Amino acid sequence: MDDSKVVGGKVKKAGKHVGKAARIHLKAKLERCQQSARERRAKKKPRYRYLEELVSREELEMSKHWCMAHDKVYKALKNILISTRY
Asked: Which family does the UniProt entry place this protein in (predicted)?
């Protein structure tokens, strides 16, 4: 079935005209979408900062363990060299 109307000698199809209410609805929808995007970006920043700090702490702990292991190896080699010297 054809939903066209004849107005003033011109044929108009239903659904082609966007009324004021529909434009307001679209503006509201766009504003909600933009606000939601702003909120997501605001949440993302602290999350990434937290993850970066977490990784930094883990890297620092790894470095500490490497340094402690290096010190143990150094002391062991020093003791071996001292004991073989005499």
From this structure: Belongs to the bZIP family. ATF subfamily.
Reported pTM: 0.47
Structural domain harbouring 35: 16-85
Predicted pLDDT of residue 62: 97
Task: Read off φ and ψ for residue 13, nearest 5 degrees.
Answer: -95, 145
**Predicted local distance difference test score (pLDDT) of residue 21:** 82
Integer Cα distance of 32 and 24 in angstroms:
12
Give how many domains the chain has, as a whole number.
1
Residue whose token pair is 């060299």? 81
Give CA–CA dist 60/62, Å, rounded: 5
Q: What are phi and psi of 57, to 5 degrees?
A: -65, -45
Pair 51, 41: CB distance under 8 Å: no
Low-confidence ranges of the chain (pLDDT < 50): 1
77 belongs to a structural domain: yes
